[in-house]
Design goal:
heterodimer, A: 208 residues, mainly alpha, elongated, B: mainly alpha
Chain lengths: 208, 428
């Protein structure tokens, strides 16, 4: 059951990241348009910054689960890497627990922020007068999703702990080794290179 | 209170608890132990107001800009073109490594990305042209650190946000020290290769027409730099707006090189949002912790403690530098910065030092932390690129450049105008 849930979780997390990214690209274009209009035509649309702010808040929390599934949240692992597998596995579970305490509190009081705006019908103190429950609601959804992802991974890890499968725990919640981290970082550069080489070769062929 | 706080912080970090969770838990513990008010209830408000701060919108945009540029292939063209102009010097391609890193840094806000990009392009040439491996690797690891000093810089934005310092001022202040440091790196290579001729690589003759024709490949990075930094310098755009313009320009370049497609954007977005989520979660936790720290009076207690030591302002500065050098050995740099700046920067500024100047000094200190073992991210990046041989080669090769960084720190302390001249010129 956990496997299916995890697949499902990863899918949702990816959709979250892509929509968050789309929001940020849209924000870039809206801000860019505003700068150009302001500079060249002395027209101020207003509201671009406000939209971008919401985009930041929402896309951040929507990407939290993806970052967690990819083990991207920074941990200081100077001592961690020296420990035997069972001990580091326990630390992995502790680290998920501590994230849960943080994310749980954040979600609870974040929902409180939304609740207040909803109850009082608060609007942003800006020309757009955005009803705050809308962006805050989307933001709260992301926080809830993040907390759920942590619970899911915690369940998976505890299951593996019962089965004494320490390698599995490390795979779910361990820190990335330097090699794994580099693969992420370098993958893009190498792919760009390959495409470039392919293109140059094609040009050469064409020239010949 | 001070000792127990530090104890909990170090303890949680040592247990490899995620940094964001560590900061938040520390906030909860301190709130529970020392506060009569339920400060933790404010975490929702703090998180919402922090993540809707327009200045911080610059973070995802700059990360995205970097991820996009990585995939346009401009770095490779730029490196090749620069090699035509610099290889005749004693030290050859090693100058190109530094120069290309500096230019790439002018389009990218990250030191790791700079080292990874230039390193991947340059590394195959060590064997091909018979360079001294260690020194060559040193230029890659240290050249990469220029990424956070030369604007745009994500670390500078975070410093500015945490200390309420003007980002345009900080950006302008980073340019001259960045160029000077690149110059010092090149000087280091030059001296090393004049003393030890055998460390130099084989010379590849380059014709003048190749050189001139190659110049066109230097244009894209300058174009991005002009869009991002020029728009700030001319007062047309705020840092966040300039980042947005940079993203649009990068998309345009990618389209021009026919690299723009859905897969490429998906990858860039995934990379950018992953980094953003990670950084923002730490920032949210740090803002909450700072709220608790001032709420329980720890910040003022610390300030009183330092003032009570009766150190002169110069002695305080030296103590702070020592503090960062020591912690820099063991801590990941982003964590180091976000946890310490809210407390250290006010201390230094209270001693009469300029916040912009201190921001640049801090970037230099962080650069040294990036190339000093055991936790020096750039060392591992470069080691990861070469795939074989001991990491000691990279560490030893970086030593001369760490010395150059400390020389630069000395210059910056002796002549603060290296940093402060351009921000003042911008205002006139």
């Amino acid at each position: 059951m956990f496997d299916r849930l995890e697949q499902f979780g990863l899918m949702i997390a990816r959709i979250g990241v892509w929509s968050g990214g789309a929001m940020m690209i849209a924000a870039a274009f809206i801000i860019g348009t505003e700068v150009v209009l302001r500079k060249l035509f002395l027209i101020t649309l207003g509201g671009a910054d406000e939209m971008a702010n919401y985009a930041l808040a929402i896309s951040t929390v929507w990407a939290l689960s993806f970052a967690l599934l990819q083990r991207a949240h920074i941990r200081v692992d100077v001592i961690y890497v020296l420990l035997p597998k069972p001990v580091s596995a326990v630390l992995d579970i502790l680290s998920l627990l501590s994230l849960l305490v943080f994310a749980g509190t954040l979600t609870w009081y974040g929902a409180g922020v939304w609740q207040t705006s909803w109850d009082f019908g608060s609007t942003a103190n800006t020309p757009l007068a955005t009803p705050l429950w809308i962006p805050q609601g989307l933001w709260m959804l992301g926080l809830i999703g993040f907390s759920f992802t942590i619970v899911l991974l915690l369940g998976r890890s505890l299951q593996a702990l019962v089965g004494r499968d320490f390698a599995k725990i490390n795979e779910i919640a361990g820190t990335l080794t330097v090699d794994e981290e580099l693969k992420e970082e370098l993958g893009a550069v190498e792919r760009a290179d390959q495409i470039h080489m392919k293109n140059t070769q094609e040009t050469k062929v064409e020239a010949a | 209170m001070l000792v127990s706080t530090l104890g909990v912080l170090m303890g949680l970090l040592a247990l490899a608890i995620p940094v964001a969770a560590t900061l938040a838990l520390l906030g909860f513990v301190l709130n529970y132990s020392y506060s009569i008010m339920p400060l933790h209830m404010a975490i929702g408000e703090i998180a919402w107001s922090t993540s809707t701060e327009f200045l911080l919108v610059a973070i995802p945009l700059f990360v995205l800009l970097g991820e996009l540029l990585l995939r346009t292939g401009i770095a490779e063209r730029m490196y090749r073109s620069m090699s035509y102009w610099l290889t005749w010097l004693p030290g050859g391609l090693m100058h190109c490594n530094v120069g290309a890193s500096a230019l790439f840094a002018a389009t990218s806000g990250s030191s790791v990305a700079t080292a990874a990009t230039i390193g991947t392009l340059a590394e195959p040439q060590i064997k091909a042209q018979k360079y001294n491996e260690r020194l060559f690797l040193g230029t890659l690891a240290s050249g990469g650190t220029l990424g956070i000093l030369i604007p745009p810089s994500i670390n500078i934005i975070i410093y500015g946000a945490l200390t309420d310092t003007s980002i345009p001022d900080l950006y302008m202040a980073g340019i001259l020290p960045g160029l000077a440091l690149a110059g010092l790196f090149m000087l280091t290579v030059l001296i090393a290769c004049l003393v030890r001729r055998d460390w130099d690589g084989e010379k590849v003759p380059v014709s003048w027409s190749t050189r001139i024709n190659g110049l066109v490949d230097l244009l894209p990075p300058f174009f991005i730099f002009f869009v991002v930094i020029g728009s700030i310098y001319l007062g047309w755009a705020t840092p966040t707006e300039s980042a947005a313009l940079g993203v649009i320009a990068a998309l345009g370049l990618a389209a021009g090189y026919r690299r723009l497609n859905i897969t490429m954007i998906k990858e860039a977005v995934e990379g950018a949002m992953r980094t953003t989520a990670m950084v923002m979660l730490i920032i949210i936790a740090a803002y909450f912790l700072n709220f608790v720290l001032s709420g329980i009076g720890l910040t003022s207690q610390l300030t009183d403690f330092i003032t009570g030591l009766g150190l002169s302002s110069f002695e305080t500065l030296m103590a702070v530098i020592l503090f960062y050098v020591v912690l820099g050995f063991f801590m990941e740099t982003l964590t180091l910065m976000i946890t310490t700046v809210p407390i250290i920067a006010p201390l230094i500024i209270a001693q009469g030092y300029d916040p912009v100047w201190f921001g640049i000094l801090l970037m230099l200190l962080i650069e040294t932390a990036l190339v000093t073992p055991p936790i020096g991210l750039n060392l591992y990046v470069v080691q990861g690129i070469r795939k074989s041989g001991p990491i000691n080669d990279v560490i030893i090769g970086s030593i001369p450049f760490v010395i150059a960084m400390f020389v630069m720190i000395g210059f910056l302390i002796a002549f603060p105008d290296i940093a402060l001249y351009l921000p003042e010129a911008m205002r006139d």
